[in-house]
Structure formats: C-alpha cells, structure tokens
Amino acid sequence: MGKLELKTGVEFIKGVGPSRAELLQQELGIFTVSDLIHSYPFRYVDKTEITLIKDIKEDGQNVQCYLEIIRLEKVKGKRQARLSVMSKDASGFLELVWFKGVNWILKYLVEGGNYLVYGKVSIFKGKKTIVHPEMERIENQESIKKKVSLSPVYSSTEKLNARKLDSKAQSKIIEQALSSLSAKAIPETLPDYLIKKLRLVAKKTALINIHKPKTTEDLEQAKKRLKFEEIFFMQLRLLYNKELRKKKLISFPFEKVGEHFHNFYKNNLGFELTNAQKRVLKEIRKDLSQNTQMNRLLQGDVGSGKTIVAVMSMLLAIDNGYQTCLMAPTEILAQQHYSGITEICAGLGIQIAFLSGSIKGNKRKEILKLLKQGDIHILIGTHALIEPTVEFKKLGLAIIDEQHRFGVMQRYRLWKKNEDHPPHILVMTATPIPRTLALTLYGDLDVSVIDEMPPGRKDIQTIHRRETHRAQVIEFMHKEIEKGRQIYIVFPLIEESETLDLNNLMSGYDELRIFFPPPKFQISVVHGRMKPKDKEMEMNRFASNKAHIMVATTVIEVGVNVPNASVMIVENTERFGLSQLHQLRGRVGRGAEQSYCILMTGVKLSKEGRKRVETMVETNDGFKIAEVDLKMRGAGNIEGTQQSGTIQFNLFNIVADNAMVAPTRNIAIKVLESDPELGHIDNAMLLQELKRQLKRHEDLGRVS
Ligand code: ADP
Ligand code: MG
Questions:
Q1: Atom of ligand 1 nearest to the CA of 586
Q2: Considering only Cβ atoms within 10 Å of each terminal Cβ, which end of the chain, N or C, has fewer?
Q3: d(CA 660, CA 704)
C-alpha cells in the first residue's frame, strides 16, 4: 500500500476497509483521511501519573496503577461466574473484578505478572476495587515511562461500538493514519512570519499532539495552534468576501435626498432623532450613495428606534426611483410594521402593500401585478417576499427585520431579486448580539449600532414574584388598569406539547376571569394555534384599548407595539431564555408611563433559572443580557447560530475562547490590508487554504 494523502478515502487506511469506512461515514461524517485526523478527541483521560494504592482516597476516582497479580480466582455466582483478581503494589492491595468476558480475560492474566491498570475505583468499607479495568502487561519497569500519556477519548455511537470502532479503535486508526501519511501530506497553512510572531507550533506537530499528546503542555500548544487557525481562517474568509463584494458588487447609487425624505422629516417625524439614530442614518446614507452594494447590520436594543431608521432609508430609495421591501419573521410583526409604517408615511403619496402566506387569490395576484409594474413602493411581509413569484420592477433596498430568525440563505435570496444588480441590504436585529458573536456571525457585514434610547423613557422596573405573591400581583394589576394602563400576560411555549401550552394558557385565562370579570374587564387571547384573522382581531382589540389584558403565548415576543401597555407579566419565567425575556420586557416601556415587568416563578428555582431572573432584575441593557445569555447557554443554542451555519468549529469555542476573536480578526485585517489579494509569496499558503475553505463553504459571498 502506498503512502496516504489527505484526500485518500478512510477505507484505504490499514485495518479499516470498505464496511467500517462506510460506518465512519454514516455515523461520524468521516470520509477522508483529512476528515479523520481533523476529528479531535472531545476529552482526554489523564494517564500521565501512576498512583500508589495507598494514595487512592476517593470513591469513583479514575486511577492508573502499576500492579502485580497475586491471585486469580473464578467465583461461581447465582447467574454467572465472576473473576476476582487480587493485586498489589508496594503500598497496598487492590481487587480487580470482571463479570463479563471472564474466560477471555483469564487467558491474558497470569499470577505474578505485572500490569499497568486503569479504571474507576470503588471503595467499600475500606476495600478498594476496580471493576473491568483496562490491563496492559508490562514487565520492564523502564518501558512504563513510554506508556503513560494523556489518552484521547473520541465520540462514538452504539453502532460504532458494536462494530469495533469505539474510541480506542478510532484512536488506533488515527495513529495509523498519521504515521502512514507521506512526509508532505500535512501542509503548513500559516506563513512563517505568523507562526513566529504568535509562537505557534507547526500544523503537523499540532495535529499529532492533539491526538497523542505526551504532556499537557504539548496538548495546550496543539489546541492553541488549531483554535487560532479555525478562527483566523474564518475571519479571513469573512473579510475577504466583504472586500470582494465591495469591489465587485455593483449596486444602485442613491444620489439624491428627495422630497419624500424631506417631507417626512418636516411633517411626519414628530420627534427629534436621537444622536445615535442620526449617526446610523448617516452611515447608511453614505453606503447607499455609493454604487457598491450595502451589506449592513443595524443593531439596537428593543425600542431604540430602528424602525424609523429603516423607514427613512426606504424613503431614500423611493426618492431615487427604486422600490424597497421589509421582511419580518412573523405575520404579526409584519402586520404591525405594515400598519405602523402606513401610518407614519401618511400623506407622502407612496404605495405600501402587505404580503404574506395568508394573502391569496385575486388579492395576491393584484399585488404581484402592481409590484412588477413598479406601482408599489414599499412591500412589507413575511418570507413570502422571497418566493420566486414575487417580482419587483426595480428593487433598490431590502430590509430584513429580526435577522436572527432568518438563515443566511434567505438573505441571499433577497439579493437575487434583481437580475442585474443586487439591492442594498440592511439587516436589523432585535436581540442585541455580543460583539464576539456578531463578529463571527456577521463578520462580513458592516455594523451600525444604536446605543441610545429615545428621550423620556423611564427604565422599566423589573420585579421577581413567586407564586405565593399572586394576590398582591392581582391587586397591582387592578391598580394599573384603574389608571388606564393595559397589561400583557405571557405564558411559555412548551415545544413538545402545543396542547399543554394551550391548556396552560386557557386555565390561566379562566382564572383571570374570576379576578377580572366581564363585562367590566375585557381580556384578549392570542396564541399560535389561532387563525391569522382571529389573531389579528384579538390583537386589535388590545391595541385599540378595548381589552385591558392580553393573555398570550410568545407569539407577541417580537416587535409588537402598544405604547399604552405598561405591565408585562411573565408566567413560568424559568421556562424562558434570557434574550426571550428581554424581548418580552421590551413590549412595555414604550409610552411615557412608568412600566413594570413582573417575572413570576414557582417557589423553587433552579440555579440557572435564578441567574436569569437576577440578570433581568439587575439590568435593562440588552447587550449585557446577551453576554450573560451567551455565557450560560453557549453559542450553539443562541438563536440563529445553527441555521446560519457559520459557526462550525472543531475546537474553538465562542464562549470559552471569546477573548481570541477580536485580536485574531485584527491580525486577519492587517494581513489583508498589506496584501489584499494575498498575492505575496509569503501569503501563498494563506491563499491556498482560503480558496479551499471558500470552496468548501460554497460561500454565499462568493461572486460569480
Ligand atoms: P425597535 O428598535 O424596537 O424596532 P421602534 O422603532 O419600534 O424600536 O421604536 C420604538 C418606539 O419609539 C416607537 O413608538 C417609535 O415611534 C419611538 N421612537 C423612535 N425613535 C424615537 C425618537 N428619536 N424619539 C422619540 N420616540 C422615538
Ligand atoms: Mg422593531
């Protein structure tokens, strides 16, 4: 058999063969030698030390000992025989026991033999025992030194275990692969100057040591190198794409600020923009005035006034003869945008239309026709907007609200709405994203941040109340309603059982009716199972102040705007994530009145539940909350990171290693600044690896 290459199929590794290769593919997604050696252990068992029996103190401790067998005994049990082996070292005695594979292991053990033994000790009444230990016979004391190591543990599955591809077997195969790779098979991916400057180990060394570290120091060095590489190339990719797009993606320059914009500013706005809004608008205007495509992320806390910024950007597009659209993740939110924007644009003489899955038949046909003729200026809706049948005459600007609910793919499909040039894109997030995460998720976008709230807002008071305080909460609600305020009560959505949710919500509703009886008190109900029409009717009842209380599931989470509502009560708070809670709280505090958020929980709270509640009570700052959320849940669970597909790291962990992101990005920026095309000979390997990765990611940013 010839030497292996990285792209060689795993079946060609000695001892693997076609059928086990197939299993590795199916179970672990490992196809090539490269896949195999890049699938790292998820933990290591520390076998660097040999413990004396007398030093074993803890029940359940994993230990490695060097022992001599003094007696082997097969003991007949009720159901099966067991093997009891007495062993010793210079400090004491230890019993080794097998219940399974007794005859097989007996062949391997001899009285008087010396073994390196590894396993989990149980201590019962002072007697130390290891059940099913790993045994390796070593007579030569000297050779023990070579044996002690950090043993890698690989992920495995039942199927793999059954077919002798457990962690240990994988380790052997990887070792085999690494030693059979030809000398040049693992190319260095980082140029010398970076390796020297950052004191990294070579790629090949790192790969060998991540699988078979001899010391913890080796392992740390290997991890450092491989993590750096992961985050570095990701940033390089994002930045490279961003530059490429800037150079190649011709879009529509919005050269003038016209009468729609001016009239709106003069007659419709009704308040002074905050400095943050002005700054962000300037950034957007600058982008839009150029003939390269804008790709900008607009971040701002709930209620910071992103919508106005979006509207004014749309007016710029219209002033320059283009159509624009606004896509929101839910029907309710899209509806709210539609009615809100229609209202604030009154008298400007622009045509605004709404489109969602529920708009059907002739109405839909009519909208699509007008859109294609260019007679609709602003189209607002759900992801119905990206369907192929939706054709614009001249789409100049597409705005996506609450981006984290859409995948990157959807962003891309909006680009494609014009045949010749892509429209400018403005993405708005409602949930603030920690900076490190933003750099990884949206590193290819320019970012604007609204970090200032409109004036006159009172901070929402957040209060934690347990079930035992229900009576006081009801009393408080009565007082607020007397003052003319309105109240939201939100029930959690339990994904496994929609019926249970509904029961939960309905019994909450029934209970409320006892304390807030009709006709004096009106309660509206909104949940995910209602028909859009009914939902809308109930929403409107609340929005128009006909209902005092709105009982809802999280369908109201995003964007709903009822300024007169001043109390948000969250039921079963422990069931909500932090960012969700922050979103919910953002539903109140929109008017001039003092607003409250009451977090109801049971009497007992889990540690995490308490941390979430405490965080909410402590701060109103969405960015701070996002940081805590990220730390508590890890990136994989942050909404949007999964479908975005951007975060696929092997080793790098966006939470634990977040301090690496910004400096690494800066290094990538410097490299590209001094050599934008990576054409310099020193950067040849960067370019090669980058190209490989771009191809693998089939990057959406790739221009073809
Ligand atoms: P979000 O950023 O959550 O989308 P919105 O755009 O919905 O926030 O704005 C929340 C509320 O604040 C709206 O009622 C809006 O009219 C109002 N608002 C926005 N900007 C200002 C401002 N500069 N001054 C006063 N009120 C503002
Ligand atoms: Mg909004």
A1: 3
A2: C
A3: 32
Q: 348 and 316 in contact (C-beta within 8 Å)?
A: no
CA distance 186 to 203: 7
Of 271, 449, 582, best ligand 1 pocket probe by most atoms within 8 Å of the beta carbon: 271
How far is the CA of 500 from the CAs of 45, 83, 382, 602, 695, in angstroms? 44, 52, 28, 18, 46
Distance 265 CA to ligand 2 centre (A): 20
Q: If phi over 0 gives left and psi between -120 and 50 gives alpha, with beta otherwise, what is residue 17? A: left
Alpha helices in 274-305 (DSSP H): 275-288
CB 87 within 8 A of CB 98: no
| Per-residue model confidence (pLDDT) at position 655 | 79
From ligand 1's centre to the CA of 524, what distance in Å? 25
For position 700, what pLDDT does the model report?
43
Are domains 62-147 and 461-619 of this chain identical in fold?
A: no
In the chain, which stretches have pLDDT less than 70? 1-2, 403-412, 419, 493-502, 555-560, 634-648, 697-704
The angle subtended at Cα 253 by Cα 370 and Cα 432, nearest 5°, is 85
Taken as a whole, the chain contains a residue count of 704
The Å distance, Cα 319 to ligand 2 centre, comes to 24
Where are the chain's structural domains? Answer: 1-48+154-183, 62-147, 259-450, 461-619
Report the alpha-carbon distance of residue 106 to residue 73 in Å, rounded. Answer: 10
Number of other CB atoms surrounding residue 488 within 10 Å: 23
Query: Among candidates 679, 397, 692, 339, which has minimal Cα distance to 539?
Result: 339
Whose CA is closest to atom 9 on ligand 1?
Answer: 305
CATH fold for domain 259-450? Rossmann fold (3.40.50)
Rounded Cα distance between 518 and 510, Å, is 12
> pLDDT tens digits, residue range 302-361?
788 999 999 999 999 999 999 999 999 888 789 889 999 999 999 999 999 999 998 999
β-strands 149-153, 43-47 pairing? antiparallel
Q: How is domain 62-147 classified at the CATH fold level?
A: OB fold (Dihydrolipoamide Acetyltransferase, E2P) (2.40.50)
- Nearest ligand to the CA of 401 is 2
Q: Which long-range contacts (CB under 8 A, 24 or more apart) does 600-603 make?
A: 600/465, 600/466, 600/467, 600/470, 600/473, 600/569, 600/570, 600/571, 600/572, 600/573, 601/464, 601/465, 601/466, 601/467, 601/572, 601/573, 601/574, 602/466, 602/467, 602/572, 602/574, 603/466, 603/467, 603/468
Overall fold of domain 1-48+154-183: DNA polymerase; domain 1 (1.10.150)
Q: What is the rounded CA–CA span in Å between residue 226 and residue 203?
A: 8
- Nearest by Cα to 462 from 542, 303, 582, 604: 582
- Quick one: the chain helix, strand, coil %, rounded to 5? 45, 20, 35
CATH level 2 (architecture), domain 461-619: 3-Layer(aba) Sandwich (3.40)
Please tell me whether the peptide bond between 519 and the residue prior to it is cis, using omega within 30 degrees of 0: yes
Q: What was the pLDDT predicted at 110?
A: 93
Per-residue model confidence (pLDDT) at position 648: 62
d(CA 444, CA 296) in angstroms, rounded, equals 9
Q: How far apart are CA 445 and CA 411, in angstroms?
A: 12
pTM as predicted: 0.71
Q: Which of 185, 433, 190, 170 is nearest to 299 (CA)?
A: 433
Taking each helix axis from N to C end, the angle separating 622-633 and 578-585, rounded to the nearest 10 degrees, works out to: 160
User: What was the pLDDT predicted at 679?
Assistant: 93
Dist. CA 388–CA 363, nearest whole Å? 17
Tell which residue, 189, 232, 178, has the closest CA to residue 39.
178
Nearest CA to 513 among 501, 524, 500? 524
CA of 310 to the centre of ligand 2 (A): 10
Amino acid symbol at 509:
Y
Task: Give the residue among 119, 126, 91, 90 at the shortest CA–CA distance from 105.
Answer: 119
